[in-house]
Structure formats: C-alpha cells, structure tokens
Amino acid sequence: MSDKQKTLKQDISISGIGLHTGCKVNMTIKPAPENHWFVFKRVDLPEQPTIDANVDNVTTTKRGTTLEQNGAEINTTEHVLAALVGMGVDNALIEIDGPEIPILDGSARQYVNAIEAVGIKEQEADRNYLVIKENLTFEDPEKHVEMLIVPQDEFRLTVMVDYKSPLLGTQHASMYHIGEFQKEISSCRTFVFLREVEALFKAGLIKGGDVDNAIVMVDEEVSPERLQELQTLFNKPEIKVEGIGYLNNLELRFRNEPARHKLLDIVGDLALVGQPIKGHVLAGRPGHAANVAFAKVIKKHFKKDKRAVPTFDLDAEPVYDINDIMNLLPPPSFFIGR
Ligand SMILES: [Zn+2]
After folding, report:
1. In the predicted structure, residue 113 carries a pLDDT above the cut 80
2. Cα dist from 28 to 32, 80, 269, whole Å
3. Stretch 298-320: mean pLDDT, rounded?
4. 50 CA to middle of ligand 1, Å?
5. 318: pLDDT confidence band, cut at 50, 70 and 90?
6. Which site among 45, 134, 176, 255 is 20 to 30 Å from 221 CA-CA?
7. pLDDT, tens only, 70-109
C-alpha cells in the first residue's frame, strides 16, 4: 500500500436508523480534498454546520461517541470512522440529515462493503502519520482499564476484555496491521447484555434498538413470563433463548466477536486524533470513555512535541518581507519624547 493520502472514488449513500435516537437518517459519504480528514455535515440544519472528527469535539461517551461543534451534534461516530480508517481512506465528507449515524447491523460491515464497491483513489499528498516514538499510557484504575501505545511500524492493536459473566469471560483480539481490518474486524457486531437492553428500552434510551442490530447476550435464566414481556417490549413475535446464550440463538461471526468489536471501536475512536497512526495499541477492558481519553493523551503528546522541537531551514528563502516588519513597528511619533 502506498503512503499517499486517499479518498473515495465516488459518493456512497447509506440509510438506516440511529440506535439511541431512533431517527431514520440518510447519509452520503463524499470524496474530500487532501489534508481534510473526516468531517460530518448536518445537512438537515439551517446553514448546514460541520463537525470535525476531532477528539476536542467529544461531548459524551455514554453508549457511543458523540461530537459537537458549531452548535450541532453527531452521535455514534465510531463505526463509520473505523470503516474509513480500516479501508485506508484519509479524507471524506460525511453528510447526514439527522443527529446519529445509522447502527445498521451493529458492525462496520455495510460501510466497508460500500467503500469497497465504489473504490478508493490515491491523492497527490503524502500521508502524514503520527509516528509513536515512546510509550504513551492511559489508566483508569477504578474501572480496571489500561491503554498503552508503543512504537511499531504499522497500526497494530491488541485488545483484552474481561467481563464478570459466565458467557463472555476473558477474550482477546488482535489486528497486526490495518490491512486485516476488512476481513477480520469490520463484521464484528456490538454487544449488550439482555438486562442492559431491557433497562435501556424501558428508559426510552434505545429508541432505534432492535434485537437485530446487536448481539444480545443472556447470561441468566429467563422465565417464560419474562420472555413474553420481552416480545412485547421489542415488538418481536418470536424471541427465543434456550438457557444461557444469545438471544434468538444467533451465530457469532467469530468466537471472540465481542473482543473484535472492542477493537473496531478503538480504531473508530482513535480516528479522532486526526491523522493516521503508526504504533501498537495494547488495551485492557477498553470502552469509549477510555478510547477518547487515550486519543487526547496521544494528541496532546504530539502537540507538545511540535513545540519542543522547532525546526529551522537555514537555506530557505525568508518568508517575511522587510516592509511588513516595518509596518508592525509603532509609528515614528511613538518614539518622540521617550
Ligand atoms: Zn461499537
């Protein structure tokens, strides 16, 4: 893969429902010029405000990553951003006529398939990588979350999850380089425990929720009465679960699909650093809050780095004009009498 920046060859259109808002939205992902990175545009609002995919714009990480800028909000940004980064796209404009990115089947598969269908094209400018040269860490001891990035010539991730659940237990997933994203990671769906999804539904917090856009895990016995209740709640005539397992006995796409989905979310959330990364991320029990905090650590480090190591090209032509400097000085009268 060359190290030139890339964008889409054509527009992509995708429609679907936002998981939390329940809004039906239409989205068009468009090619964008060099050094543009990813920008969302709320075409449903007056003046069509834009929201940069920048970690400084994150307002909440409850059940997904939400960005806000120019008075506009965009929810659940992680899966579409993961798909773009995972397919090697550097620049895209994501136009959307609602407040939330569609959840689709809970993975990034449909986005990846659409990107593959239109193809990507190389641009003139080189990629500007954030090259990790020293270890950077983020820890949240209370939640037992640890994140670390170490030097590595590829964007590589190793993720460990550990839930106090007999169904999920400890899982591990890895991606050795971004070229593995499409086949190994993109189809992995988000997951939720049945008791969580029930509570969220009852609280009206997952209006667009459906048992088909997440892996619903059942790690406790469900009585026939509760199953009846769930059918009404989810508006599904047939909800099946036999003992401990998955709702509707769905087939996992990979044995460790939940851990792979956590990896997908990290790729999407670290896109908010604003540049492609060369480094190896090791994450223990990550979530959106930790991913975003870690993205801030990385971004801050590089900002500091730039200030600390100024570079001067002594052979370069001076970029200033002597007349401009004279104009900056106070007028001659200022000096009189001093
Ligand atoms: Zn996710």
Report:
1. yes
2. 12, 12, 20
3. 60
4. 23
5. very low
6. 255
7. 999 999 999 999 999 999 999 999 999 999 999 999 999 9
Is 288 tagged catalytic?
yes
Cα(309) to ligand 1 centroid in Å equals 37
Domains of the chain, start order: 4-188+255-308 (3.30.230.20), 191-249 (no CATH)
Hey, what are 336's tokens? Answer: 């009189």
Residues with CB under 5 A from ligand 1 (ion): 190, 265
- Read off the tokens for 102: 């569609």
Find the catalytic residue in 172, 177, 288, 301.
Answer: 288
pTM of the model as a whole: 0.86
* pLDDT category of residue 166 using cuts at 50, 70 and 90: confident
Q: Is 306 exposed, middle or buried (0-12, 13-18, 19+ CB in 10 A)?
A: exposed
Ligand 1 centroid distance, CA of 14 (Å): 18
